Write the C-alpha coordinates for this entry.
Amino acid sequence: MAIKMLFTPNGPIAVSGDLSELKLTDSTGQPIDVSGEKKIFLCRCGGSVTKPFCDGTHTTIGFQAAEAAVMSQG
Protein backbone atom coordinates (compact mmCIF):
# COMPACT_ATOMS: atom_id res chain seq x y z
CA MET A 1 0.00 0.00 0.00
CA ALA A 2 1.32 3.43 -0.93
CA ILE A 3 2.38 5.86 1.78
CA LYS A 4 -0.09 8.73 2.07
CA MET A 5 0.46 12.11 3.70
CA LEU A 6 -2.41 14.34 4.78
CA PHE A 7 -1.71 17.89 5.92
CA THR A 8 -4.44 18.38 8.50
CA PRO A 9 -5.94 21.86 8.93
CA ASN A 10 -3.80 23.72 11.49
CA GLY A 11 -2.42 20.42 12.72
CA PRO A 12 0.09 17.70 12.05
CA ILE A 13 0.93 15.71 8.94
CA ALA A 14 -0.87 12.35 9.13
CA VAL A 15 1.20 9.63 7.48
CA SER A 16 -0.36 6.24 6.73
CA GLY A 17 0.18 3.23 4.53
CA ASP A 18 3.01 0.70 4.49
CA LEU A 19 5.21 2.51 6.99
CA SER A 20 7.77 -0.30 6.88
CA GLU A 21 8.80 1.32 3.56
CA LEU A 22 9.17 4.79 5.13
CA LYS A 23 12.76 5.91 5.73
CA LEU A 24 12.48 8.41 8.60
CA THR A 25 15.64 9.83 10.17
CA ASP A 26 16.37 12.39 12.86
CA SER A 27 18.50 15.50 12.41
CA THR A 28 21.70 13.49 12.93
CA GLY A 29 20.76 10.89 10.33
CA GLN A 30 19.83 8.22 12.86
CA PRO A 31 16.87 6.09 11.74
CA ILE A 32 13.55 6.38 13.54
CA ASP A 33 11.78 3.03 13.55
CA VAL A 34 8.07 3.34 12.74
CA SER A 35 7.61 -0.23 11.50
CA GLY A 36 4.61 -1.79 13.15
CA GLU A 37 2.78 1.54 13.20
CA LYS A 38 -0.31 1.97 11.03
CA LYS A 39 -0.36 5.77 11.18
CA ILE A 40 1.94 8.45 12.56
CA PHE A 41 1.45 12.17 13.04
CA LEU A 42 4.38 14.46 12.30
CA CYS A 43 4.68 17.86 13.99
CA ARG A 44 4.24 20.84 11.73
CA CYS A 45 4.03 23.66 14.29
CA GLY A 46 7.54 23.24 15.73
CA GLY A 47 6.31 23.17 19.33
CA SER A 48 6.13 19.44 20.02
CA VAL A 49 8.45 18.03 22.68
CA THR A 50 8.25 14.63 20.96
CA LYS A 51 9.56 15.80 17.57
CA PRO A 52 9.30 14.68 14.88
CA PHE A 53 5.96 13.42 16.21
CA CYS A 54 2.99 15.57 17.15
CA ASP A 55 2.09 15.86 20.84
CA GLY A 56 -0.90 18.19 20.39
CA THR A 57 0.97 21.40 21.21
CA HIS A 58 -0.43 23.04 18.07
CA THR A 59 -3.80 23.31 19.80
CA THR A 60 -2.42 25.27 22.75
CA ILE A 61 -0.14 27.66 20.84
CA GLY A 62 -2.66 28.69 18.20
CA PHE A 63 -0.75 27.26 15.24
CA GLN A 64 -2.20 28.34 11.90
CA ALA A 65 -0.90 26.57 8.83
CA ALA A 66 -0.85 27.89 5.30
CA GLU A 67 -3.89 26.35 3.67
CA ALA A 68 -2.46 26.08 0.17
CA ALA A 69 0.96 25.77 -1.38
CA VAL A 70 2.25 28.91 -3.05
CA MET A 71 2.97 28.28 -6.71
CA SER A 72 6.32 29.54 -7.97
CA GLN A 73 6.15 32.21 -10.65
CA GLY A 74 8.44 31.00 -13.48
Observations:
- The radius of gyration is 14 Å.
